[in-house]
Amino acid sequence: xxxxxxLAAAWTAATRLLHPATVTHLPWVVGFAGNELVARxxxxxxxxxxxxxxxxxxxxxxxxxxxxxxxxxxxxxxxLGWRWAxxxxxxxxxxxxxxxxxxxxxxxxxxxxxxxxxxxxxxxxTALRG
Length: 130
What we know:
Layout: H1 2-18, H2 32-49, H3 52-79, H4 85-112, H5 118-129
């Protein structure tokens, strides 16, 4: 789903670059602080309990927060008459979603392959040597 989001954002942004449109609903921009707080909580709890899916969900929430900030920038650019601001920022958002996808996929893959935190391996080796 994260990959589909990235592709949809990239497609829409590219289309808007080729066929500029007027941005409407400029005042409807809110959410970064709330998304970041939720993201930090989910990531922290997910790592503490070893839930890769919760960590991935936290990373997704963090991306939502940064997306909200990017939307503010796009809205500001559109308000100034910069028709290219919205699609260019849309492409930046697609790239950001791609990075989240990479991180989430790595985390879930490691979990699926029963990866062990290197620090735990070091602790086990130290205990066995003792």
